[in-house]
Inverse folding.
């Protein structure tokens, strides 16, 4: 029997559990944990609860909470007010996005000049963003009264201004303008940052080639800031679907139902008429609309964004 | 074994003795209210402190909420499982609260409370807050609508004062609008229906009641906006706004108490808004007579105890204390009482020193004893909003009043018939 010969190889070391990869993985999870916990607690759980409520008839005063299956959804589809509400929402969103983005881009181009004191104008245009929304809206409410400041100024020039908040067309336009003036500064800053990222050489080359200012804007500026256009469009559309305070303060959905947008209708059903189950159903509809629109825009990014792969 | 028993006894004593030393847990009750007036709160806190003095384990907190959206705030608190123990309730939403089962019945507690004298509370004031023979809220404020007038601007427009018209038996809506038309033509505003603002249309009850009009039948099941009295009243109002300019149009702001208008319809508690500096010559009068004769309209507010509150029994006992004869007399300083024994010039005069005995007799005492409480209906918030949307078509020049009234009924009738 041969003698066992001692080997020089060291005994295999037990592999450490906390490898570098695991440590990094754990650190990553710990970093995102607060965000994930926040999303679960403040987004996913409330979303699930809203869906659960939408399957119930919940009368707060009577204290009744009765499972009604899809009755609220069938009621929503048959709701005679819904077409008017969706129409008002669409008009508001379309008007807001078109006016907001075009004005923001115009302002960004204007303040993207190397002039003395231009910072003052940038600050001035941005300042409404940091003003309290309700305070801003209340002040505009006074200005838009029939005998308010705007008609007072028009009167100086001999123009009889309309009753802004009492006529359906001007009421919707007024709410859009108030909202645009409040938030246009934010989009302006985003556009300004994008504009300042466009290489100067491209404009110089275009000028050498004899391109006009408009052609430079259309062929160079717009394509190169298209990711920002995409971003601001998504933010503005989603924001437009959530408009509430301006409607509540300025028009309360009127005149008639001309400014009753979906969020205000949801508020009326749930909090004014005490139909929390039906209000939850309307909020599910709002969620679906926001999700579909955002998804559709994301899918369209290849067409909108110049250098999207 | 003995050692174990000894240890157990020590353990029991260790728990029980400190527990016995701690006073019984205090009970906090919360009353939701829509006033933040310092004088009101001072009085409420005094009454709350007096209750705590008699019941040291109970503390009362008054929770002021903004009047705008008050009921919404209340229902949101209830939905969130944070219902107050007691709350003020507007007369327009009385139907919803009283019939929903949200409030606890109070009659037995009031009857059992020493010296309460429930028979002193007028039956007419309790009507809105009663159902099935029981009382579900106490009408702590029963306040008639009156007409405040600015005699300075009326005289400046070359018109007779309303007091002169009353003396000559000519205080009618036709003459009142004539005065307001003249004042408006002279550069001031005419009549302001306070808090109406072309949205709170139910406040127009202070005018259309003069035509004997009502928005729905007595049983609440049939829309009566299309009935001749309502069409006539609304035609009168529309004409006063758009043709005669006697009532400021939609979107026009003016404040009677700043001296900007000739008249305003509101409740007597607004007398506190009359200017102390640079005062104008004002008067308070009953509402003018309409084609259907003299009338009065009363606004009410009740206090109810929530069944889902944390301490309904304690809250009910506190409500009986809060509204007993002694405290009702104190509350009369701000809120016209529902107790017959307090409806006299002496009590009301102390409470409203700016009003003369004649004004109190003509507007408050007569108003409460003869007036009808402002309209109410189950599901009022939805009816109010739906009718508001339909009535917006009326608040334009050249509106077809009958057609608008038909559209109001077409929209609210399904809600009334439910």
């Amino acid at each position: 029997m041969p003698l066992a010969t001692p080997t020089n190889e060291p005994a295999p070391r037990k592999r450490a559990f906390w490898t570098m990869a695991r440590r990094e993985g754990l650190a990553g999870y710990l970093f995102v944990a607060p965000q994930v916990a926040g999303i679960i607690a403040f987004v996913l759980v409330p979303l699930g609860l809203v869906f659960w409520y939408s399957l119930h008839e919940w009368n707060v005063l009577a204290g009744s909470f009765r499972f009604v299956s899809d009755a609220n959804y069938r009621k929503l589809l048959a709701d005679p007010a819904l077409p008017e509400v969706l129409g008002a929402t669409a008009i508001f969103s379309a008007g807001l996005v078109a006016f907001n983005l075009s004005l923001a881009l115009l302002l960004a181009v204007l303040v993207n000049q190397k002039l003395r004191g231009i910072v003052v104008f940038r600050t001035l245009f941005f300042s409404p963003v940091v003003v309290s929304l309700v305070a801003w809206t209340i002040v505009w409410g006074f200005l838009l009264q029939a005998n308010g400041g705007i008609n007072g100024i028009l009167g100086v020039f001999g123009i009889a201004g309309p009753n802004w908040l009492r006529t359906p067309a001007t009421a919707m336009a007024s709410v859009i303008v108030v909202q645009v003036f409040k938030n246009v500064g934010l989009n302006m800053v985003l556009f300004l940052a994008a504009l300042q990222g466009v290489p100067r050489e491209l404009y110089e080359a275009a000028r050498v080639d004899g391109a006009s200012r408009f052609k430079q804007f259309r062929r160079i500026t717009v394509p190169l800031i298209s990711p920002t256009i995409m971003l601001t469009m998504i933010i503005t559309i989603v924001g437009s679907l959530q408009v509430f305070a301006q409607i509540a303060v300025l028009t309360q959905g009127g005149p008639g139902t001309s400014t009753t947008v979906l969020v205000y209708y949801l508020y009326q059903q749930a909090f004014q008429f005490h139909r929390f189950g039906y209000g939850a159903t309307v909020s599910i509809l709002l969620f679906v609309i926001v999700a579909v629109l955002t998804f559709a825009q994301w899918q369209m990014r290849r067409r909108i964004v110049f250098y999207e792969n | 074994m003995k050692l174990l028993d000894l240890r157990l006894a020590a353990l029991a004593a260790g728990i029980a003795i400190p527990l016995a030393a701690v006073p019984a847990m205090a009970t906090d009750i919360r009353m939701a209210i829509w006033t933040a007036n310092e004088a009101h709160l001072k009085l409420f806190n005094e009454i709350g402190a007096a209750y705590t003095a008699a019941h040291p384990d109970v503390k009362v907190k008054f929770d002021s909420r903004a009047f705008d959206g008050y009921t919404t705030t209340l229902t949101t608190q209830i939905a969130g499982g944070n219902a107050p123990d007691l709350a003020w309730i507007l007369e327009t939403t009385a139907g919803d609260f009283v019939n929903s089962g949200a409030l606890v019945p109070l009659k037995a507690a009031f009857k059992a409370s020493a010296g309460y004298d429930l028979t002193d509370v007028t039956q007419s004031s309790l009507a809105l807050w009663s159902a099935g023979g029981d009382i579900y809220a106490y009408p702590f404020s029963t306040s008639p609508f009156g007409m405040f007038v600015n005699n300075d601007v009326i005289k400046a427009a070359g018109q007779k004062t309303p007091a002169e018209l009353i003396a000559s038996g000519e205080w009618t809506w036709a003459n009142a609008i004539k005065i307001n038309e003249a004042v408006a033509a002279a550069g001031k505003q005419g009549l302001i229906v306070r808090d109406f603002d072309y949205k709170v249309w139910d406040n127009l009850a202070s005018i259309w009641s003069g035509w004997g009009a009502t928005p729905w039948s007595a049983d609440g099941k049939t829309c009566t906006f299309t009935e001749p009295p309502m069409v006539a009243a609304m035609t009168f109002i529309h004409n006063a706004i758009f043709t005669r300019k006697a009532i400021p149009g939609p979107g026009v702001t003016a404040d009677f108490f700043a001296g900007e208008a000739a008249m305003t319809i509101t409740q007597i508690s607004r007398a506190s808004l009359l200017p102390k500096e640079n005062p104008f010559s004002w008067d308070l009068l009953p509402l003018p007579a309409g084609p259907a004769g003299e009338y009065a309209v009363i606004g009410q507010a009740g206090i109810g105890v929530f069944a889902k509150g944390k301490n309904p029994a304690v809250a009910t006992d506190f409500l009986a204390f809060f509204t007993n004869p002694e405290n009702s007399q104190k509350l009369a300083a701000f809120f016209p009482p529902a107790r017959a024994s307090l409806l006299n010039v002496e009590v009301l005069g102390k409470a409203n020193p700016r009003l003369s005995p004649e004004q109190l007799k003509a507007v408050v005492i007569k108003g409460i004893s003869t007036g009808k409480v402002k309209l109410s209906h189950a599901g009022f918030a939805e009816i109010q909003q739906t009718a508001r949307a339909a009535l917006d078509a009326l608040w334009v020049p050249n509106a077809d009043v009958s057609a608008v009234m038909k559209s109001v009924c077409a929209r609210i009738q399904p809600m009334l018939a439910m």
About this structure: The first strand of chain B starts at residue 27 and ends at 33.
